[in-house]
Amino acid sequence: xxxxxxxxxGSVESSRSLVAILxxxxxxxxxxxxxxxxxxxxxxxxxxKKDIDRVTDYYDTIRMYQYPxxxxxxxxxxxxxxxxxxxxxxxxxxx
Length: 95
Fold this sequence. Notes:
Elements: E1 2-8, H1 12-24, E2 28-31, E3 34-37, H2 42-55, E4 61-69, E5 72-79, E6 82-88
Antiparallel strand pairs: 1-3, 1-4, 2-3, 4-5, 5-6
Helix pairs in contact: 1-2
């Protein structure tokens, strides 16, 4: 699965912890706050989310773009210490 992680840490300490975790999972930095992995498993992704939860606080925001999830794209966000997930379905034009 392809996963892109966008970081918006609330502190320098959170930033350092998050970068260390992403590097541990073999993510590659592609832009200033964007990290990508092209072949992470569901199991590793679940563990990654737990590790991220452990080092973040209320002021950190993390967004993950995942593909494929049930054949579709998913956006998962950690904001105010709560995970939310949105699965994007293709738009259908009705005739």
